[in-house]
Write a structure and sequence with these properties.
Blueprint: E1 2-5, H1 16-29, E2 33-36, H2 46-49, E3 55-60, E4 66-74, E5 77-81, H3 83-86, H4 103-114, E6 119-123, H5 134-140, E7 150-155, H6 163-168, H7 176-197, H8 209-218, E8 223-226, H9 227-234, H10 237-240, E9 246-254, H11 263-274, E10 277-285, E11 294-296, H12 297-301, H13 303-308, H14 310-323, H15 325-331
Parallel strand pairs: 1-2, 1-9, 5-6, 6-7, 7-8, 9-10, 10-11
Antiparallel strand pairs: 3-4, 4-5
Helix pairs in contact: 1-14, 4-5, 14-15
Length: 335
């Protein structure tokens, strides 16, 4: 068979490359033609699958402390992952959802401009912030420096600008009262951005990504793009699926959002368009109406082993697919 292996990271256990390698190993050992395409949805891990960091800059973390953030620059094109500067993982032990700022992400964009980059891709996801991108815009002042720059934003969600507080702020430590405060702050920013830039961010799908950073950057000319589509195009995933017999994707946790702009849904959609059978192997899974067969490591091997030996579990599932791909593809149900 020709097999395309295109998983996202398994958060907390394996990055996308390691997950792809584990799933691919049994197929390769059995003599099949295997193509590994580690994937991301525009959020955390996107920089790694697009080549990894080759530059680093000291910027402000979400609460203003210095942090060294890696980014990539090649042929006057820069790739920035906002989580490296403004991510939740940087402040997990000192959460402050109201004070958290995207200023450091703006500093990274500024560093890319100063390096001579004429194209800048900003990958969103994993943010600690709900500042509507105001911190980033302040760091980029004067924004006239962005004239002539192709600025693209890879969004990992389709959430509206004002909805960002209600949907995501609780994950960043916000209390119900703080969610209300952050919502009012975003509502006020809608008016500010409309007056200052002539852009109504409430009309932009995905403007609420990264706590509204997507909307803020759109005000200064950024193009908002579904992250999984951008990554799939950059890695020529559709081309890899030509003449494939099977596509294997996956992620750490499958839920309804997995089929709304995330890797599993994006890969499944491409596979369907290419007429190729697709299966997802995931760390664990909610009860969802999945359009493709799903194998849950937690259900099959138990949660403890699925976490402690994710690579080994993925290899075992891969071996099962090698032994009887027709049966697994036809009969596996969401666990």
């Amino acid at each position: 068979m020709r097999v395309v292996v295109a998983p996202d990271k398994f958060r907390g256990t394996l990055d996308a490359r390691a997950a792809a390698a584990a799933l691919a190993a049994p197929f390769r050992a059995a003599g099949h033609d295997v193509v590994e395409v580690p994937m991301a949805d525009g959020g955390e891990g996107t920089l790694d699958v697009l080549g990894g960091a080759n530059r680093s800059t000291v910027v402000s973390d979400p609460l203003g402390d210095p942090v060294t953030a890696g980014w990539r620059c090649s042929s006057r094109r820069a790739v920035i992952e906002m989580a490296r500067a403004s991510g939740l993982a940087l402040v997990e032990d000192r959460l402050d959802p109201v004070a958290a700022s995207t200023h450091g992400t703006g500093e990274l964009i500024a560093a890319a401009l100063e390096s001579g980059s004429r194209e800048v891709l900003v990958c969103l996801g994993g943010s600690a912030t709900t500042d509507g991108g105001l911190g980033a815009l302040r760091a980029l002042h004067p924004v006239a420096r962005l004239r002539g720059i192709r600025l693209r934003v890879a969004c990992d969600v389709t959430t509206g600008f004002v909805d960002a507080a209600r949907v995501f702020a609780p994950q960043k430590g916000a209390t119900p009262a703080q969610v209300e405060l952050l919502t009012r702050r975003l509502e006020a920013l809608v008016e500010v951005y409309r007056d200052d830039y002539g852009v109504d961010v409430t009309e932009l799908e995905g403007a609420g990504a990264a706590g509204g950073l997507a909307g803020g950057l759109a005000c200064v000319g950024a193009e908002l793009i579904p992250g999984v589509e951008l990554v799939a195009d950059a890695l020529a995933l559709a081309d890899a699926m030509e003449d494939a017999d099977l596509v294997v994707t996956g992620e750490g946790h499958l839920d309804e959002e997995s089929f709304r702009g995330k890797v599993v849904g994006g890969v499944a959609e491409l596979a369907a368009e290419s007429g190729v059978r697709c299966v997802a192997v995931v760390g664990d899974a909610d009860e969802v109406d999945a359009p493709i067969p799903v194998v849950s490591l937690a259900a099959r091997f138990g949660v403890d082993r699925a976490v402690a030996d994710a690579a080994g579990c993925l290899e075992e599932v891969g071996s099962g697919l090698v032994a009887d791909p027709g049966f697994v593809m036809d009969d596996v149900e969401v666990d």
